[in-house]
Write a structure and sequence with these properties.
The complex is a heterodimer of chains A (183) and B (393). Chain A is α/β, with parallel strands linked by helices. In chain A, helix 2 links the parallel strand 4 and strand 5. Chain B folds into two domains: 243 residues, Thiamin diphosphate (ThDP)-binding fold, Pyr/PP domains (Rossmann fold, 3-Layer(aba) Sandwich); 136 residues, Rossmann fold, CATH 3.40.50.920. Chain B is 41% helix and 18% strand. Chain B has a seven-stranded mixed beta sheet, with helices on both faces. Chain B has a six-stranded mixed beta sheet with strand order 9-11-10-13-14-15, sandwiched between helices. A two-stranded antiparallel ribbon of chain B has the order 1-8. Classes of the chains: A alpha/beta (183), B alpha/beta (393).
Chain lengths: 183, 393
Amino acid sequence: MLEVRFHGRGGQGAVTSAEIIAQAAIKQGMRAQAFPSFGPERRGAPVQAFLRVSDKPIRLRSKVYKPDSVLILDPTLVASANPTAGLKKGGYIIINSNKSVEELKKIFPGQNIVAVDATKIAKEELGVPITNTTMLGALVRATRVVELSTLEEPVRNRFGVNGQKNINAYTRAYNEATIINAE
Amino acid sequence: MSADKGMEVSIAASVAAKLARVEAVAAYPITPQTHIVEHLAEIVANGELDAAYINVESEHSAMSACVGASATGARTFTSTSAQGMELMHEILFIASGMRLPIVMASVNRALSSPLSIWGDHSDVMAARDTGWIMLFTENGQEVVDSIIMAFKIAEDRRVLLPAMVNLDGFSLSHVIEPIQFPSQEDVDRFLPPYAPLYTLHPDKPVTMGAYAMPELYTEAKYSQEIAIRNSKAVIKEVMEQFSKDFGRKYNIVETYNIEKADTVFMALGSINENIKTAIDLLKDNGKELGLVAPRLFRPFPADELVEVLKTKKKLAVFERVMPGGAMNGPLYNEIASMVVQNGLDLQLENYIFGLGGRDVEPEELIDVFEQISTSAKITHADNKNYGVIGVRS
């Protein structure tokens, strides 16, 4: 079973990211769960969403405390929300960041990192700095949890006429992501 | 067999109501039930579902409108949570007393105060003796199937009682997960249109829910009590029919790994999935724990529980509600009464957990198992009756 915790801020669409992956995984015949962590959440406040994907039925209803990977939509959360808490050894930190490899290695010493400047891609492809769908490309690159092509249908269902723009955005993120493996 | 669809359980619940071809819906939005009634409003508005959607200003009015709609012979659905159910409370008794087969999705949530929007069973347990049939669910598939079954149970001429399908707020209601939907044709075959015994109609005036003198009230309530007791046989029949028609097996009491286990856990709702995971982890270490999960809470399935528990040694009952000054939680109290009446030799433990959305991971359940299996008699330091999992004092 793969467990991923998503970190974003209210309004950035972390929950939607988790949902799209779950729908794609189910489409591929796997079992999956996606759910939000509901709190007194407001636009801009730190939020979490959770994803589980497995080839067997998932019988767990608690939150993800020991994720295999974490996905960070908003780099400012690193300082304030401890998004890597409980991350399993060897797991990936999948982060929206414009920082250099050297800088990232300093922030997350000894960790596996997949980084992409999703804010830049989202601005160019979608016209807005909303990175939730863009980051799906980096997530798939890091975890191979689903085929990139399986994301198309849930993304089109969700975004209608803007579906293609979102597909372009996550495809770019998939190709442009930098993978930093722990030494 | 249709393919799994990835869908939020709340949306799936409203699709189930649509597959049941509900004719009247009256509801008031409240977290975490909101998505169910929002989606129903949407599919009624866009013509996908031919039903009267009655907008109301409160849950008291929602249930009152459901009573009226059901009395005219319409297949009626509603949904609520927490304070909403408390505001309905008065009318819950009227629905059951008038023998109206309303179906309600009860999205379980904690009661204020303190204000909590998260899940527990305070709401349904405060309504447990309102004369409604009560089913509990562990996952989205069970929610969909139970809503469809609930109409068939409630509308059976041998029953004619309202039924509540309970699903845990957030931990079930807001999860996207794989769900299979039966075809409309198959649901239509399983669940024919509601054929009421009597209906309110201006051309043929009747009085329903009238006043009863002391000479009659006891008999009216007694016949209602017999109806809910007898409903168990119908519920079994409907579950068997559903298993035959749709291939998913349902029993009023479900069990998991009880064959070799001397110690058994019991709980209602979605925590049972975490308990099953705990059981699997224990099994990997050569330890045996069983689960007995009542799917039916009202009427209370005592005979069926005795059957699976009579050879067991220890039973821990887990509940998502504070006893409120009672000796123990409401499920435990039923079990204790069942154990005494049936002369079972079963050591009982009661644990309160998961209040106001507090997570309980499988590891914590394993801790409880280890505690129980290593001591002859558990005593709770601060309370001789029940323990509270994870409480900070």
